[in-house]
């Protein structure tokens, strides 16, 4: 993982769904295979990049399984593609397996729940710039809030596979245990050993969980959990880089903490994206200008979605 490169080669292609597993009350993992040129392009996908998924052709679930909160919007037409970052990539001999972790929050993700083996999904990507590893950084801290765990899951895998000398730890938080987007039962033994989350433990990555209500792991916010750990760790500040993904309020606070501690920090921002390729200009992120008091707008889809936290002007 190197510095961002805006000249990302991208394409439009189809993926064949091979699974769409429900892993919680409102969380799913969608997997699809991409062959040919598309598979080749996605084989170089970097953590934090994204794709635009066409979901307008997906069916609408039966009324009896539609959450009451979505009953009024379930019939809404889906015109625009939706951006998703991969939580996993597996490069095979003739294809690339891609996995998306998603939460059912609106009519688009509701339709995605009906996708099943053999269905075709239209994909544009890879898009944007992902996380990078600055020179001299040997320790990576992943901080995830809710569904923000998706690109960080892939980041953990990517780092351990491509940078064997890098140490990684992850902090994952949510309001309550049911809002953690992970499958499998969280048990006291694994939490005490520091390997609470199987998706990270399989790569030998230590993980810590935080829930606001204390229903799993540390009682408090994920940032409070991180701060407690940071006070006790022997990791040197100059060796650390933080990757953050989650609600913008969390990222703003994470940026503040990192700034006070003089830790490099990168944040994955989220904006509504109509096109995902810089044409519509709808995904502006206000950023500071080096050596100037002026601010400028950068595009989340092209300049990001991952930014150095020091340049982002948070509005929270």
Structural class: alpha/beta
In what range is the share of β-strand residues? 25-35%
What is the radius of gyration computed over CA atoms, rounded to a whole number of angstroms? Answer: 19 Å
The end-to-end span amounts to 30 Å
Number of strand segments = 16
The stretches of 5 or more residues where confidence is low (pLDDT under 50) are none
Work out the helicity level: 10-25%
What sort of overall outline do the alpha carbons produce when their principal axes are compared?
globular
Helix and strand element order: EEHEEEEHEEHEHHEEHEHEEEE
Q: Could you describe the largest sheet, including whether it forms a barrel? A: 7 strands, antiparallel
Number of helices: 7
Trace the largest sheet across and list its strands: 4-3-7-1-2-6-5
- Mean pLDDT comes to 91
Structural commentary:
By secondary structure, the protein is an alpha/beta fold. It contains seven helices and 16 strands. A seven-stranded antiparallel sheet has the order 4-3-7-1-2-6-5. The longest helix is centred in the middle third of the chain and has 14 residues.
Topology readout:
Layout lengths: L10 E12 L4 E9 H7 L7 E5 L27 E3 L1 E6 L3 E9 L3 H6 L7 E8 L11 E7 L3 H14 L4 E8 L13 H6 L4 H4 L4 E6 L6 E2 L2 H11 L7 E6 L2 H14 L2 E5 L15 E5 L6 E5 L6 E3 L8
Parallel strand pairs: 8-9, 8-12, 9-10, 10-11, 12-13
Antiparallel strand pairs: 1-2, 1-7, 2-6, 3-4, 3-7, 5-6, 13-16, 14-15
Which properties best describe this structure?
7 helices, 316 residues, 16 strands, 7-stranded mixed beta sheet, 7-stranded antiparallel beta sheet, alpha/beta, single chain
């Amino acid at each position: 993982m190197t510095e961002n490169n805006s000249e990302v080669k991208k394409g439009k292609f189809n993926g064949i769904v091979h699974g769409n597993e429900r892993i919680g009350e409102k969380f799913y993992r969608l997997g699809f295979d991409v062959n040919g040129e598309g598979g080749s392009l996605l084989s170089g996908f970097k953590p934090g990049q994204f794709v635009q998924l066409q979901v307008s052709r997906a069916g609408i679930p039966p009324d009896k399984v539609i959450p009451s909160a979505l009953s009024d919007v379930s019939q809404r037409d889906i015109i625009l593609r939706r951006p998703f970052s991969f939580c996993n990539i597996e490069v095979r001999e003739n294809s690339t397996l891609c996995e998306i972790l998603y939460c059912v929050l609106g009519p688009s993700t509701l339709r995605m729940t009906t996708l099943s083996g053999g269905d075709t999904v239209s994909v544009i990507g890879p898009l944007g710039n992902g996380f990078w590893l600055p020179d001299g950084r040997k320790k990576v801290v992943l901080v995830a809030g809710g569904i923000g765990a998706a690109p960080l899951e892939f980041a953990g895998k990517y780092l351990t596979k491509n940078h064997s000398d890098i140490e990684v730890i992850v902090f994952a938080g949510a309001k309550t245990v049911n809002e953690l987007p992970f499958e499998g039962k969280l048990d006291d033994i694994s939490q005490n050993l520091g390997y609470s989350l199987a998706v990270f433990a399989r790569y030998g990555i230590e993980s810590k969980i935080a829930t606001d209500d204390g229903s799993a792991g540390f009682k408090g916010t994920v940032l409070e959990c991180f701060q407690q750990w940071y006070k006790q760790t022997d990791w040197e500040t100059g060796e650390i880089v933080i990757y953050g993904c989650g609600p913008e309020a969390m990222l703003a606070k994470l940026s503040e903490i990192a700034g006070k501690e003089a830790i490099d920090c990168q944040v994955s921002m989220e904006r509504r994206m109509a096109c995902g390729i810089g044409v519509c200009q709808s995904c502006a992120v206000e950023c500071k200008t080096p050596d100037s008091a002026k601010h400028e707008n950068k595009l989340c889809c092209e300049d990001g979605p991952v930014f150095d936290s020091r340049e982002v002007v948070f509005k929270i």
